[in-house]
Amino acid sequence: MQVFIVDDEYIARERLKRFLKDIKDVEVVGEAETKKEAVQKIIETEPDIVILDIKLPDGTGLEVAKEIIEKGTKPYIIFATAYGDYALEAFKLNSVDYLLKPYEFEDLEKAIEKVKNLEEKERNFVNVAKVIATDQDFLIPAKTLNKVVLLRPDDIYYIKAELSETLIRTKDKDYLSKRKLYEFEELLSHKGFFKVHKSYIVNLTKIKEMKIVEQSKFLISFKDIPDTIKTSREGAKKLRDYLDI
């Protein structure tokens, strides 16, 4: 698993790298000491895990987590900090663990093991989606409250990347999934789904109309639901090319 370290203290980063070197199947792919540097490099490297300090010279690790998630990068996040006051906010960001300095090697090892277990569960969940099938269509597991349902692709209007999950919009209800947006894109591309924005995949068969708005973007409206989605500029260009319009 690829790990990115964010901490403004050189000694802390070096200690963390020594710990990680002794954990199986883990590779450090980058490090940063400021919020700005961290956001840029994490988006570029797309690591599996980000280990974040809370206090940084130009912001906080919480802000780093929010920004990378909003930009579509969703690594597993472990906070490692001397400040215990931010644990609740950290877990609201769906972080895997919150280590208080000075933590020991065993604490970090357990946090990494949590990530590996979560990844295995998510991988199995994706595999289930790929093998569940009928004669006419495959089905997609999704959840609402305490229930898991199986959705047909034709039931779905669009899929949106949220902070820690993806939202699946149907005619009557919203559902949630732990699957990442790019996984849905791969799974549904042959079913008429198209990525129109870094945070949205839409079912082209459910579109009512596409209105041209600023900077040549499209404002998409749907049949039977009041929702609208504005494409990105790049998404609109790719959609034009795809539809040959």
Tag the structure with descriptive keywords.
single chain, 245 residues, alpha/beta, Rossmann fold, OB fold (Dihydrolipoamide Acetyltransferase, E2P), elongated, Sig_transdc_resp-reg_receiver, LytR-like, DNA binding
Report on this model:
The chain is of the alpha/beta class and 245 residues long. The protein has 2 domains: 2-128, Response regulator (Rossmann fold, 3-Layer(aba) Sandwich); 140-243, LytTr DNA-binding domain (OB fold (Dihydrolipoamide Acetyltransferase, E2P)). Helices cover 35% and strands 31% of the residues. It is built from 7 helices and 17 strands. It has helices spanning 10-21, 35-45, 61-70, 87-92, 105-131, 181-188, 233-243, and strands spanning 2-6, 27-32, 49-52, 55-56, 59-60, 76-81, 97-100, 140-144, 147-151, 156-161, 166-170, 174-177, 193-197, 200-203, 207-212, 218-222, 228-230. It has a 5-stranded parallel β-sheet with strand order 2-1-3-6-7, sandwiched between helices. Helix 2 (35-45) runs parallel beside helix 3. The longest helix is centred in the middle third of the chain and has 27 residues, at 105-131. It is elongated and about 55 Å long. The termini are far apart. The mean pLDDT is 88. InterPro entries: CheY-like_superfamily (IPR011006), LytR-like (IPR046947), LytTR_DNA-bd_dom (IPR007492), Sig_transdc_resp-reg_receiver (IPR001789). Residues 2-116 form the Response regulatory domain. Residues 140-245 form the HTH LytTR-type domain. It holds the Pfam family Response_reg. GO terms for molecular function: DNA binding; phosphorelay response regulator activity.
